[in-house]
Amino acid sequence: MPTQLRRTPPRRPWIIAALAALFAAATLAPGATAGEPLLKLPVDLPAHLAKGGKVVPPKSGTWVGTYEESSGSQIVKQNRLFDMEELIGRKVDVDHNYTAWNEPFPGWREKWDIAHGRVPFVSWAKTSTSAINSGRYDAMIKKRAAEVKQFGHPILLEWFWEMDGRRNRHIAKSPASFIAAWKRIHRIFDRAGVENVSWVWCPNAWGFHTGEAQKYYPGDEYVDWICANGYNWAPGRDGDQWRSFEWIFQDFYDWAVKRGKPLMIGEFGAQERKHGEKAEWIREAAQTLKTKFPEIKAVVYFNVKKRYDWRIDTSSARSAWKYLAREVRPDQ
Fold it and tell me: Is there a contact between 265 and 298 (Cβ–Cβ < 8 Å)?
């Protein structure tokens, strides 16, 4: 890991302390794998991050997380998250990271997150469910399971998100093939004795409206957190109407809350329309989470410009996001 610190020290004392601890710890360069030493973890980790168990959701309130732009060096990636934490005045609860199907994990980021009191949220990319079901990838899956077990600390693990969407049907093959592949991966982890993974199943929020998402559910035995991804696509996407956070996720919530599991929003975002509307959308989302969706225990904002500009730093959205992070914060 690079040893340089931020060019401009953060104003928040708790971030300064976190950086000092990170600077003093022993670390590796980017590309380190789970089996290698990274940085020394504090002994007083919160219970939901301690070794040996799954991610335990907050009893009340909602964790707040983000996915940040993935380009740049390790220090650049870390600084993006520090910038977000400086904005909201506290740590980010959940750090979202995408990894390719054949890419090793956990790595430096997951251990860095644990050291800073964040829940690592790993999205493990899709591959052909037919290939998985044939046993072609069993050896690789076993290796991932061993690495996750060695890591020891709880992680949220999401494999093949949005499997119900049109762009993924040629890879998912069918609901039956997807479910068989999901169970195969899960059983390989079980046989390896992995106890620190919380399995996150995450189709499109729209899929719960059409009834397509539910077809891909592997069953309560194989899912720990139920998730959905959803966006307010207007005004960027032709033909889409401006939709509230509540409208986007209502059908997901109505179906998932009956399963008795913690719920999560793995990706969400809004674009700018008229000045101030994005900020109002975020503020309304905060109130919806508090008053109508109490079983949603984590929300993760897609804080990048990809296809459309979802970033929080547009218009007055920064203050609205800070408001949301404060309003839904779990009891300490």
Answer: yes
Which domains does the chain possess?
52-327 (3.20.20.80)
Give 263's contacts (C-beta < 8 A, 6+ positions apart).
225, 226, 227, 252, 253, 256, 257, 293, 295, 296, 297
DSSP string, 89-135: TS--SEEEEEE-TTS--SBHHHHHHHHTTPEEEEEEPP--HHHHHTT
The pTM for the full model equals 0.87
Q: Which two tokens stand for residue 195?
A: 């106890």
Is the C-alpha dihedral spanning 304, 8, 122, 257 positive or negative? negative
**Strands 119-124, 94-99: parallel, antiparallel or unpaired by DSSP?**
parallel
Distances (CA, A) of 93 to 13, 28, 264, 292: 18, 24, 13, 21
C-alpha 54/C-alpha 325 separation (Å) is: 24
The predicted-structure confidence for 235-276, as pLDDT tens digits, reads as follows 999 989 999 999 999 999 999 999 999 999 999 999 999 999
Nearest Cα residue to 204 out of 237, 243, 143, 160: 160
User: For residue 294, what are its two tokens?
Assistant: 């109490």
